[in-house]
Specification:
7-stranded mixed beta sheet; 7 strands; about 150 residues
């Protein structure tokens, strides 16, 4: 498996599979191409030996909070889930945003697999915000403190 920084041309490969990878939920509109253009040093693409798209992570360093970074999307081909690829993509992101020690992510409460995955790799549920993305658009806010990794 090759994990490398995202490139603008990768957007087309990701956007055609994103709704399918999310079980038919309409997610494509939530991932703009700007992550593949302006955040290439903190966004990654994973490819199998055959060059096929295996996963991706899009994130950035916070412009507001000097010690924080944010992961906007993490996607892994459903046939490769539970292979450790999601964790590997996060490890690349953690290294890219160092020395920042707080990483945040957000997911929908209906995405119980995402919440469980994040908990398994050391994230904590910060809170459930019932109107995070607009009235009635609840989100689970997740946080991982990377300084805890160095200690434990």
């Amino acid at each position: 498996m090759l994990i490398r920084p995202a490139e603008p041309d990768d957007y087309a490969r990701v956007i055609v599979v994103i709704d399918e990878w999310w079980g038919g939920r309409e997610m494509a509109a939530m991932l703009p191409k700007l992550f593949f253009v302006h955040f290439r040093d903190t966004s990654f693409v994973a490819e199998g030996e055959d060059g096929a798209l295996a996963g991706f992570l899009c994130g950035f360093r916070s412009q507001t909070f000097a010690d924080e970074a944010y992961v906007h999307f993490l996607g892994v081909d459903p046939s490769l889930r539970r292979s450790g690829l999601g964790r590997e993509l996060y490890e690349h992101f953690f290294a890219a945003v160092a020395p920042r020690t707080v990483v945040r992510a957000v997911t929908a409460p209906v995405n119980e697999r995402s919440v469980a995955f994040h908990r398994a790799i050391g994230f904590e549920v910060d809170r459930l915000d019932p109107d995070y993305d607009g009235q009635g658009q609840a989100r689970v806010l997740l946080v991982r403190r990377l300084d805890a990794v160095a200690d434990g």
